[in-house]
Design brief:
3 domains; alpha+beta; Alpha-Beta Plaits; Helix Hairpins; 8 helices
C-alpha cells in the first residue's frame, strides 16, 4: 500500500504541472477562440459573399481553431504525437468508408458555393429534375418545381451531372414550330408568321424575330418561329407568341394539315351515312 501511494505521489509530482498547464491553456484557448470568432464573424458580415458561404466558412474556422487547441493540449500532456496521428488516421479512414456519400455531398456543396454555377432564385435543370433554386446547403440543394413540389438533390449528384441554368442570361430565345399544308405560298406564310412574331407582346426587336420554312414532311411544310424575350418574362412571352401566331394563321385562312385531315374524315363519314 505504501509503495502504491508513493507511485501516485510521484505521478502527481511529475504530471501535476502538465495537468495544471493544460487546464490553463484550455481556459485561455477557449477565450481566445471566442475572441477570434467574433472578429471572423464581423469580417464575414461585411463581405459580399453568399449567406450560406459565410456560415460555412465561420464553422470551418471554428473547427480548425478547436483542432489546434486539442493538438496543443495533447502536446502539453506529453502524449506521443505518432500515436495520436495513427489514431486520427484510422478513425478518419473508418469515417470516410462509412460516410462516402455524405462526404461526396459535402465536397459537392463546397464546390457549388465556391464556383457558383447557379444561385438562389435561378431556374435549373439537373439530375432529372428542374425548378427554382430555393436553398443551397452543405449536403443538398432544394428546388421548387413549377407545380409547387420541393425536390432535394444531393450536391454530389449535382457536381457530377449536367446542369442547365435557364435564367443565367438576361434574355432567352423562344422556338416554335407550325405545321402548314403545302398548297399555300411559302412567302405568304413566312410574312404572316414574321409579322405576328414582331407584334407579339414581350418579343424583343433586337435580336430580330425569325420566321422561315425549316423542314418539309410529305404534304406538310414546317415553319419555325423564333423570338427573343427577357428571361423573367419567358413563359408569358412564350404563350403570347403561340396565341399571336395561331390567330394570325387562322385569320389568313392558313390551315393546319391535321385539322384538314380531321375535316376530311368527318366529311367522308357524313357522305357514307347519306349513301346508307
Amino acid at each position: 500500500m505504501e509503495e502504491f501511494m508513493n507511485k501516485v505521489i510521484d505521478m502527481g509530482a511529475t504530471s501535476g504541472g502538465k495537468i495544471i498547464m493544460a487546464i490553463l491553456v484550455l481556459v485561455v484557448g477557449l477565450l481566445l477562440i471566442k475572441f477570434i470568432m467574433k472578429i471572423v464573424n464581423r469580417q464575414l458580415e461585411k463581405s459580399k459573399m453568399d449567406h450560406t458561404v459565410k456560415t460555412v466558412l465561420g464553422k470551418v474556422v471554428k473547427i480548425l481553431l478547436y483542432v489546434v487547441l486539442v493538438v496543443g493540449l495533447i502536446e502539453i500532456l506529453g502524449v506521443p504525437m505518432t500515436s495520436v496521428a495513427a489514431l486520427i488516421a484510422s478513425g478518419g479512414l473508418a469515417v470516410g468508408l462509412g460516410f462516402q456519400g455524405a462526404l461526396a455531398n459535402l465536397a459537392g456543396g463546397f464546390l457549388i458555393l465556391i464556383f457558383r454555377p447557379f444561385k438562389i432564385g435561378d431556374y435549373i435543370e439537373a439530375s432529372d429534375a428542374e425548378g427554382i433554386v430555393r436553398d443551397i446547403s452543405i449536403f443538398y440543394t432544394k428546388l421548387l418545381t413549377l407545380d409547387n413540389r420541393t425536390v432535394l438533390i444531393p450536391n454530389g449528384d449535382l457536381m457530377s451531372a449536367k446542369v442547365t441554368n435557364l435564367t443565367a442570361e438576361p434574355i432567352r430565345r423562344i422556338d416554335l414550330d407550325f405545321k402548314i399544308t403545302n398548297d399555300i405560298d411559302q412567302d405568304f406564310v413566312r410574312d404572316v408568321l414574321l409579322a405576328a412574331a414582331q407584334q407579339s407582346p414581350g418579343i424583343l426587336p433586337d435580336p430580330a424575330p425569325f420566321a422561315r420554312l425549316t423542314a418539309v414532311d410529305d404534304d406538310t411544310y414546317i415553319f419555325t418561329v423564333r423570338g427573343w424575350c427577357e428571361t423573367p418574362h419567358y413563359w408569358d412571352s412564350y404563350f403570347d407568341l403561340i396565341e399571336t401566331c395561331s390567330k394570325a394563321l387562322a385569320d389568313n385562312g392558313i390551315d393546319d394539315p391535321e385539322e384538314r385531315i380531321a375535316v376530311r374524315l368527318v366529311g367522308e363519314e357524313a357522305e357514307e351515312e347519306e349513301k346508307k
